[in-house]
Amino acid sequence: MKRDLKNKIKNEYLGRAYATFCGMLIIILTISIIYFIASKGMKLFILNNQSISEFLFSKVWDPEERKYGALIYILGSSAVSLGAVIISTPLAIALAIFINMISPKLGEKVMQPAMELFVGIPSVVYGWIGISVLVPIIKNYLGGVGFSLLAGILVLSVMILPTITSIATVILYIISGFVILLYSKNIR
């Protein structure tokens, strides 16, 4: 009896010490990464005498002349993100309605596991498929080089669709349960 209690206490302290060590290691690594990125990034503003407003609002990107303007990249990223959300959100809500209300059995057995599986696919895989499949299709049918806003929007739309669908499914499930609860209280 004493031996079991002694082992439990020993294991608990070891577990707590290990969890504390891992937590502190994560904090130290995070601070180190932030320091590294900030110190390398600050060189642009300190050594090149470039202002933050020039960096954020200039369109000129010329490393040979040490001019770095990020406006085009910021606007491009914003346009791709906004376009992907505009495309994915209605589709995700429609999928969530299908999973929860139209065909709950099919949704629970097939659609929900598929969505959870797609959430786990790394973004690098989506990007590789976009570059190797989508970009050549856009290049052949629409012209140009294929690397475009359309390609980015479509790849990001496919990438975020499962996440938005999973969130919308849970929200609809909670809302439907809440409505049923309110309706059952009003009947009495």
Walk me through the structure.
The chain has 188 residues and is mostly helical. It folds into two domains: 2-68; 72-187, no CATH class. Helix content is 84%, strand content 2%. It is built from six helices and two strands; from the N terminus they run ααββαααα. It has helices at residues 2-46, 52-57, 71-102, 104-119, 123-142, 149-187; strands at 61-62, 67-68. α3 (71-102) runs parallel beside α6 (149-187). The termini are far apart. InterPro entries: MetI-like_sf (IPR035906), Phosphate_Transport_Permease (IPR051124). It is found in: Cell membrane. It is a multi-pass membrane protein. It comes from Clostridium putrefaciens.
Q: What's the β-strand tally?
A: 2
Helix share of residues? Answer: over 70%
Rg for CA atoms? 25 Å
- The helix count comes to 6
The gross shape turns out to be flat
Instruction: Give the strand order, joined by hyphens, for the main sheet.
Output: 1-2
Distance between the termini: 55 Å
Broad structural category: mainly alpha
Kindly state the mean pLDDT as a whole number? 88
Strand content: under 5%
Largest sheet: 2 strands, antiparallel
Order of helices and strands: HHEEHHHH
The stretches of 5 or more residues where confidence is low (pLDDT under 50) are: none
Count of domain modules? 2
Keywords:
188 residues, two-stranded antiparallel ribbon, flat
Brief summary of the model shown:
By secondary structure, this protein is an all-alpha fold.
What are the SSEs and their pairings?
Blueprint: H1 2-46, H2 52-57, E1 61-62, E2 67-68, H3 71-102, H4 104-119, H5 123-142, H6 149-187
Antiparallel strand pairs: 1-2
Helix pairs in contact: 3-4, 3-6, 4-6, 5-6
Protein name: Phosphate permease
Membrane topology: Multi-pass membrane protein
Keywords: Cell membrane, Membrane, Transmembrane, Transmembrane helix, Transport
